[in-house]
């Protein structure tokens, strides 16, 4: 060792401490990787928890949409669309004509058949009326003839009765005369002034006079009975045979006239029924020939299912109108919130022009038929979720309509809103993240309506400024020298 020192050995300077720096960096890289992995795992765990747990117990839901009942305007008849004034998104009022449909190919067989039957019934009715009038005229003439002959017979019977009464008086006188002769001869026989043989012829003559008186009385009574029957309209006797035949004929004609009257009423009723059917058939054909599709109430046209010149069938949908005055909100909540979101619960509504509302119904699920009754289909639910129907407060809705603008139109059907239960504690994480993004965008003086593009542009600009502000004389590691040009190229792009 002494020889080495003597030979001019000079101690070398102490080594620099610079080579120890890469060792420190080597120990720092695993720590950074470990911290990054833990951070990424923590963020993923937080995202999974916020995606699963909060929807189960959240008092807020942004899966809510403004909906309204839809009125389907269908074609009342089959035909061709002549005019169509309905346009999607257009406002309509009550009784506005949205379309006109005409049909020139109508089946008029029923109307022609009814008109033929009505013509036949009218002819039968006219014939029956003519026969009835003829029978009535014939009966009138027979009444006149019977009345005239009855008057003549009454006069004859009166004269015969007077004659018979005279004959009865004559017979009474003759019988009195014969009785006096008989009495005188009886006295003469009693004094033996005459024989009994002379009394017998006288007694016989007296008996004949009495019988003649009885016969005249009988004939008188017969004529009196005939006159009484004639006055009562009873035609009995040899003298009343012709009159009785006329009266019988009169009864037959009168009976036929009554039958014609009944037939006339029947034919008139049949004709009235046929005319009513013809009137109804003409009205039906008029309705089928042309029809207007009218709006049942005010609203907005949602969709149009026809076009001018197109042939449609009865029942085809021409247009659908949304009744914006009956809007409501459909929100999706977890089954666990079913008890808290029972009907009558007050909620807050953000968006759609609403501020508050009341839960009107809770539905576990829906169907396609139910969705067809509304303008917007209900959002799709997952397992253990339910629908909450919310009726907005009337004052808030009126204010929204009054203050409607281009950004918030009066009819906000189909717009997504956020529903929060009053006094709710647990928010929806999707709403929280969205509001946090808007807050970050507002802090960076960006437009919240377009945070993605603006944030990307601002980040690229700041990165480029930071890279350009580095001093040129600072010694960078060899790794940094290879990475910097690439970063500048990316920032420039």
UniProtKB/TrEMBL annotation:
Localization, UniProt: Cell envelope
GO cellular component: cell envelope
Source superkingdom: Bacteria
Coiled-coil intervals, chain numbering: 111-174
Membrane-traversing stretches: 31-53
Keyword annotations from UniProtKB, A to Z: Coiled coil, Membrane, Transmembrane, Transmembrane helix
UniProt region (Disordered), positions on chain: 1-25
InterPro entries: MFP (IPR050739)
This protein's record includes keyword Transmembrane: yes
Principal location listed in the UniProt entry: other
Protein name as annotated: HlyD family secretion protein
Species of provenance: Bradyrhizobium oligotrophicum S58
Organism ancestry: Bacteria, Pseudomonadati, Pseudomonadota, Alphaproteobacteria, Hyphomicrobiales
């Amino acid at each position: 060792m002494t020889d080495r020192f003597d030979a001019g050995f000079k101690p070398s300077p102490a080594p620099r401490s610079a080579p120890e720096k890469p060792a420190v960096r080597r120990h720092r890289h695993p720590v950074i990787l470990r911290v990054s992995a833990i951070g990424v795992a923590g963020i993923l765990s937080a995202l999974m928890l916020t995606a699963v747990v909060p929807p189960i117990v959240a008092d807020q839901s942004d899966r809510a949409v403004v909906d309204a009942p839809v009125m389907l305007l269908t074609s009342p008849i089959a035909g061709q669309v002549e005019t169509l004034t309905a346009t999607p998104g257009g406002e309509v009022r009550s009784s506005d004509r949205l379309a006109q449909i005409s049909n020139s190919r109508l089946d008029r067989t029923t109307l022609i058949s009814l008109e033929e039957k009505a013509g036949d019934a009218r002819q039968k009715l006219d014939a029956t009326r003519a026969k009835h009038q003829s029978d009535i005229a014939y009966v009138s003439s027979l009444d006149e003839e019977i009345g005239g002959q009855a008057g003549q017979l009454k006069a004859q019977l009166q004269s015969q009765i007077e004659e018979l009464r005279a004959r009865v008086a004559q017979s009474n006188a003759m019988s009195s005369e014969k009785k006096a002769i008989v009495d005188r001869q009886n006295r003469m026989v009693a004094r033996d002034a005459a024989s009994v043989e002379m009394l017998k012829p006288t007694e016989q003559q007296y008996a004949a006079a009495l019988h003649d008186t009885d016969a005249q009385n009988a004939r008188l009574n017969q004529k009196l009975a005939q006159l009484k029957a004639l006055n009562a309209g009873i035609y009995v006797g040899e003298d009343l045979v012709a009159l009785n035949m006329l009266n019988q004929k009169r009864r037959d004609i009168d009976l036929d006239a009554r039958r014609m009257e009944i037939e006339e009423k029947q034919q008139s009723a049949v004709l009235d029924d046929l005319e009513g059917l013809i009137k109804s058939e003409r009205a039906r054909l008029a309705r089928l020939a042309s029809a207007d599709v009218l709006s049942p109430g005010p609203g907005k046209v949602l969709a149009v299912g026809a076009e001018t010149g197109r042939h449609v069938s009865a029942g085809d949908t021409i247009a659908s109108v949304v009744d914006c005055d009956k809007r409501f909100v459909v929100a999706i909540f977890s089954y666990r919130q079913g008890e808290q979101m029972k009907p009558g619960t007050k909620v807050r509504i953000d968006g759609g022009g609403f501020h508050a509302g009341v839960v009107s119904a809770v539905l576990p699920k829906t169907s396609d038929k139910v969705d067809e009754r509304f303008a917007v289909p209900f959002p799709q639910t997952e397992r253990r979720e339910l629908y909450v129907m919310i009726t907005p407060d009337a004052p808030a809705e009126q204010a929204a309509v009054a203050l409607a603008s281009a950004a918030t139109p009066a009819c906000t059907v189909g717009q997504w809103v956020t529903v929060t239960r009053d006094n709710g504690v647990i928010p929806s994480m999707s709403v929280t993240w969205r509001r946090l993004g808007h807050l970050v965008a507002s802090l960076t003086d960006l437009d919240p309506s377009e945070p993605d593009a603006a944030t990307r542009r601002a980040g690229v600009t700041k990165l480029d400024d930071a890279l350009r502000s580095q001093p040129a004389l600072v010694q960078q590691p060899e790794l940094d020298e290879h990475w910097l040009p690439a970063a500048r190229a990316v920032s420039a792009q």
